[in-house]
Every structure is written in C-alpha cells, then in structure tokens.
Amino acid sequence: MENSRRLSSLNMPIYILFCIVLSPKYIQCYVTTMISYEYYSSDSNFLNKTEDSQTNGFVSTRGGQDAVLNGKAFILIDSNGFFYGCGQPANPTYVSNGVAIIQRGGNCTFSVKITRAKQYGATAVIIYDPFNSGSELYNMLQNSSDILAVYVQRSVGAFLFNITKNNRTQLNITLQPIAMPFDNYNDNENNIWFGSQSATIFIAISICILISLCIAWLIFYYCQRHRARTAKDRLQSRLSNAAKKALTKIPLVNVHE
User: What is the C-alpha to C-alpha distance for residues 233 and 154, in angstroms, rounded to an integer?
Assistant: First the structure.
C-alpha cells in the first residue's frame, strides 16, 4: 500500500508536465505595451502636433500591469548630469501621473530607479540602454514597486528621451500593456531557449523520460526485493520441512529405570 502511494505521488509531476506541453500558449507569452505619444515638434515651430503609436517593450512581471493614459514624460537628472535615476535629482519636481524615462546604468538596480521615479509622481517608468545598439529586451525582475515598468529598445527609448529633454517640448505618453506570444517576438526567434515552444516541449519530454526511468528503477527494485523475500521464505520453509522429516526418522528409545 505504501509503495503504491509513492508511485502515485511520483506520477503527479508527469501529469503537470503533460499539461504544460498540451497548453504551451499559457506559458509562451510575455507582456509588451502599446506606446502612444503626442508632442509639438520644433521643426514646425511647435505648431503642429505629432502623434504616433507602436508596440514595443518588455513589461516587468514584478510591477503593475495597469494602463497609463496621457502621462507627462519627464527625466531625472542628478548633480553629476547623469540620467540613471540612481542619485537624488538636481532639480526635483513632482509630476503627477508622469512617465519617467530613465537610462540603464549607474550602479543601481532597476528597483532603485523605479522607486525613485515613483517618489516624484511617476505612474510608469520607461527604461532603455543608451550604450547598447542591439534590440535586447529584459524582464526587470529586480522591481519591488507596484507601478508599470517597461524596458524598451534603444531606438525607442532614445527617441522619447531626446524629445523629453527638450525644455520647449511637452511629451505625453499613453502605455497600454498587452499580452503577446513569444512566437511573435522576432528579435529572439533564433534563440531556441528564449520563448521557444519546441524547446519547452523538449525539456518537458526529457523530464518525463527521466521521471519514468526513476519509476521503472523503483519498480525493478521492489520486484527484486519481493523476489528475494519470497526465495528466502521458500528456503526457510524447505529447511523447516527437511528438519521435521529428519526428526521423524530418528528412532526413539524409551529408557526405563
């Protein structure tokens, strides 16, 4: 009875892995955001409004997932002239319902950057790497804040940053988080370990095979143990019967005083 319970408990991971394999869409997704923005361009002497939208960024799974509507973009600059959001701002201003645009770097974690931006009214944070020309996106797991945090590519982040840095321009940003399957993330489609459905199925099947081998070994072990016990019991039974037969053949001599 105890052995059957152990085997049934070992079967539970197999059932869970099969569920993962049969429904990969529930784990093969990430949250990006629709970035809509509007501003007045200096090319038109700040008379014509420019509006645009695009899907970009990796929303931190540790932060908020609520949309931000028409948030005023602002940047945090410290006393050394950096825009990392690590130190105290040189000219701190509170921007209600703001969207902070922060650069990656400065020897501090994402959590420090996001928390500092929230202190000055930010309801969302956009972070990008100004020194990396690639298109890598990161899930900012070091995030203890509850506001929306998005890591975007350099092209998008630098564009929004330069507009915000212009004191004559006011940039309003709307962020709408949306779920996207990893198969649509073209920048990592060649990396089989980043959101690949085939890699997930391969790992799940490998673990199932490993667990099956462990269960087979346990079954073989208990079968061998049962056979050894049965053989031992049979041997003891034969020896006992042989001893009884030997005792019956020994003549009994009655001694009279």
Answer: 76
